[in-house]
Specification:
Strand order of the largest sheet: 1-8-7
Largest sheet: 3 strands, antiparallel
Order of helices and strands: HEEEEEEEEE
Oligomer: single chain
Number of helices: 1
Distance between the termini: 51 Å
Number of strands: 9
Shape: globular
Helix content: 10-25%
Radius of gyration: 20 Å
Number of domains: 1
Strand content: 35-45%
């Protein structure tokens, strides 16, 4: 019985390890161009980075997600997310921090 329980627990952990962190949404319609936005308010401090707004898909339509200021991470720079075309349609590639 203990051996069976061990295998069940191991199977659960292994299946979780190979599952994607989040499901990727694929859309057929080309995303809209990003909005031209005047950044308000001004930069809150010299150690802040602007994360640009972008289109997200909600309820089968594009909705604008506003940009925001975030505190910069030491020795890293922010790479904005972008829409990428693949053979199935368009997918959102999230922004991320990159070591410099």
């Amino acid at each position: 019985m203990k051996k069976l329980s061990f295998y069940i627990v191991a199977l659960i952990f292994l299946s979780a390890a190979f599952m994607p962190a989040r499901a990727q949404v694929v859309v057929k319609t080309k995303p809209l161009r990003p909005r031209v936005v005047v950044v308000k308010p001004a930069q809150p401090g010299s150690n802040y980075v602007w994360i640009a707004g972008h289109w997200v898909v909600k309820n089968h339509r594009y909705v604008w997600k506003k940009g925001r200021w975030v505190k910069a991470r030491p020795h890293q720079k922010w790479l904005n997310g972008h829409w990428k075309k693949n053979r199935r349609g368009w997918v959102w590639v999230p922004g991320r921090w990159m070591k410099i």
